Amino acid sequence: MELYAHETENHLEAPAIRASIHVGASAISMLILDCGDLAKPTPLEFLEQPLPLGRDIFSKGLVSRTTTERAVEILAGYLITLRELGAGINEVSRIVVTNILSEASNKEAVSNRLSVATGLSIGILDDGEMTRLVYLKTLRRLHEIDSMKKRVTLVAHVGPGNTRALLFAKGHIDEYESYRLGTHRAAELIEASFTEGEAQLRLIRDNAAGPISRLQFDLREHQVEELVLIGYEIQLLAPYLLKSENATRCTVKALRTLCQEAARLPEDQRASTYQLDYHTAEALLPALQINLSIAEAFGVKYVHIPTSDYERGLLHDLPFSSELTREFEAEVIRSASHLAEKYETHSHHGEQVAFLCKRLFEETQQLHKLSDQDNLLLHVAAIVHEVGGFVSPHAHHKHSQYIILNSEIFGLSFRERTLVALIARYHRMSPPKPTHTLYESLPHSERIRVSKLASLLRVADALERTHSNRVRDLTITIERTKLILQLKDVSDATAERLALEGKADLFRDIFGLEVIIAE
């Protein structure tokens, strides 16, 4: 988005403004930044208004009309604030809704209502981007706390509907998983139980036991040395847990004490005691107990809790979180490699196919006109395309699709994993067909993406037919109806030519070019 300064009535130049808006589980917030210095944007104003979105979704399965219209009213007020600063909707760089909206039966109607009322494009904050935001927060913690770069560190983000766990070893992500365990999901359980005090804590603990046991099992090969707790509610409570402004951690005992003290208070008193709005206070006990249960499960004595404001940090990162960085791409690829290793694939084959995919992608950019994000999805698909062989060598491409769809790959949303699963599925045998249900369910633009990327994967896989990594490099020439491949230092390409006869068909159908290996 192009940033520009407006002129006020007295012709004084106003600051270049960029605003981010988050429609969260219990509030709508907006951060306005002065971006006169793009390298160091300065906060101008932060606004936050309560909204019972999470309560609606987890109690009724939909967002009520009253809540939807209240959201419209809040957003209209935010746009007035922007106009008072000499800005407007053009300066709203992102507006997103919490990913729990995807669980509401009327999610599309709500998104449409907000979009029509504000004139803004509303997006649901998907799991992949939420993970990227947590990753950005964690990078800052790694830089602040030197020991986290050297020790095995678990970062737990307890959100309104799900808990994300990122395990860092030597400063890099080693494991990533997401679990159906969240503050507002648990709050609704309490509401329906009519329990009070300590009984509420037991109910939350029992409800969290299953997902946390699964988390322990998933990380069974690691000894967690540091635990970082991230989340809207737990970071609001940091001042009550940390002994001083400069403190970076608190004892698990202090977390347990605060949890018990909060449980003894009547619900309305919790809000005033901890200076929270009513809707946030509803999720207070679940946030404390779930985080405490995670700390107890891994036997740590101390936990790190960022003292920064969770919501302000999220809004600050929103304009940048969809952008790929080399560091982030490396973590996505590392996660894909872990998945391939888990299902005992031939790692050298996957890496070589990924290398050839990268070369083909770069050399045919003028043909496919795809993005860096597509290049990353192709790279991931190349690494994991044979995981289905773990189930059976027969129809392993279909098994690969199933495994990828039902596995976590750090940094990829379910939609992105769906694309990767389909690209991997079409690395052999039949190209995409309208009779293939998952492929047909995609929008037309994404079916084209899958077909383009799968066509490149099929060619790369054919060039690695011998599983010997012998195609070290290649050059590509396009001549009218042909794509000519010159394989470096390969004297006899008979095996590769035979493989291309069965795999270059999709490339020909998509781009109208026969793939030929030069003599």
What secondary-structure arrangement, pairings included, does this model have?
Blueprint: E1 17-23, E2 27-34, E3 42-50, H1 53-60, H2 65-84, E4 92-97, H3 107-118, E5 123-124, H4 127-144, H5 147-150, E6 153-158, E7 163-169, E8 172-179, H6 183-193, H7 198-218, E9 226-230, H8 232-236, H9 238-241, E10 249-251, H10 252-264, H11 267-273, H12 278-282, H13 284-297, E11 302-304, H14 310-321, H15 326-342, H16 347-363, H17 365-368, H18 372-384, H19 396-405, H20 414-425, H21 437-440, H22 444-463, E12 474-479, E13 482-487, H23 494-503, H24 505-511, E14 514-517
Parallel strand pairs: 1-4, 4-5, 6-9, 13-14
Antiparallel strand pairs: 1-2, 2-3, 6-7, 7-8, 10-11, 12-13
Outline the structure in words:
The protein has 519 residues and is of the alpha/beta class. The protein has three domains: 17-124, Nucleotidyltransferase, domain 5 (2-Layer Sandwich); 127-321, Exopolyphosphatase. Domain 2 (Nucleotidyltransferase, domain 5, 2-Layer Sandwich), CATH 3.30.420; 326-469, Hypothetical protein af1432. Helices cover 52% and strands 15% of the residues. It contains 24 helices and 14 strands. The strands form four sheets. Strands 3-2-1-4-5 form a five-stranded mixed sheet, with helices on both faces. A hairpin with a 7-residue loop joins β2 (27-34) and β3. α18 (372-384) packs across α20 (414-425), α20 crosses α22 and α22 crosses α24 (505-511). The protein is globular. It starts with 16 loop residues before the first strand and ends with a strand. The model is unreliable at 1-14 (pLDDT under 50).
